[in-house]
Design goal:
Elements: E1 2-6, H1 12-22, E2 26-30, E3 33-34, E4 38-39, E5 53-56, E6 59-62, H2 64-75, H3 84-113, H4 121-142, H5 155-169, H6 178-188, H7 191-201
Parallel strand pairs: 1-2
Antiparallel strand pairs: 1-5, 3-4, 5-6
Helix pairs in contact: 1-2, 1-5, 1-7, 3-4, 3-5, 4-6, 5-6
Bound molecules: glutathione.
Organism: Neoroseomonas lacus
Domain GST N-terminal: 1-79
Family: Belongs to the GST superfamily.
Length: 202
């Protein structure tokens, strides 16, 4: 049984979606936030003291996107393809973590997450400007194929879509990127995504 430490209203959402997509049994060990986005109690199994963390038998992992790669590898194809497509999954997952997420967070904190009085409009604009450049790359890729890797949904789509879920749900202007918008609509309304979203959105 996978044990996902965290709550659905955190990056643990990503791992819950992955477990749902993989069809593997899992439990959520609830750990949420105290005021100021700090954890309500320490999480000793993660040396970074952050959520999520995963326990799978003797294996303990941190980093939500790495946890998702592990979950997908347990499920195998089609969620985690083999051969060169496995390398393409790694490429897109690293692109998500290194090229996309920081800009999503910069926009998100200053557009809808922080209390209104603490938001800085110029920070939201800078995050959006950087994110738009990445969305333009994605738009061109999705003009060539329906999903990031091959013709079907893989954990590469899950990992990128779960990072773009906040903007998608919270009014980010996706009009200049219609293929990205359609792909996100498809990914985020898959039955497994809807089950995970229900835990988060209520
Ligand atoms: N790169 C990490 C980021 C983890 C992270 O920042 N988690 C947040 C919640 S979504 C957290 O635990 N914040 C509490 C803190 O920083 O004290 C991952 O993707 O797992």
């Amino acid at each position: 049984m996978l044990k996902i430490h965290g709550i659905a209203r955190s990056r643990a959402f990503r791992c819950i979606w992955a477990a749902e997509e993989a069809g593997l049994p899992y439990e959520v060990v609830p750990l949420g936030f105290a005021p100021g986005f700090k954890l309500e109690r320490p999480l000793a199994i993660n040396p970074n003291n952050k959520i999520p963390a995963l326990e799978d038998g003797d294996l303990v992992l941190f980093e939500s996107l790495a946890i998702n790669l592990h979950i997908a590898a347990k499920a195998g194809a089609p969620l985690m393809p083999t051969g060169d497509d496995a390398s393409r999954v790694m490429q897109w997952t690293l692109w998500t973590g290194t090229e996309v997420e920081a800009h999503v967070m910069r926009w998100g904190y200053n557009a809808y997450i922080k209390p209104e009085a603490e938001r800085i409009a110029s920070e939201a604009a800078a995050g959006k400007e950087a994110l738009d450049l990445r969305l333009a790359v994605l738009e061109r890729e999705l003009a060539q194929r329906p999903y990031l890797v091959g013709n079907g949904f893989t954990v590469a789509d899950l990992n990128l879509a779960c990072v773009l879920y906040g903007p998608w749900l919270n009014g980010y202007d996706l009009a200049p990127f219609p293929k990205v918008k359609a792909w996100l609509d498809t990914c985020l309304t898959r039955p497994a995504a809807l089950r995970a979203r229900k835990l988060r959105e209520g």
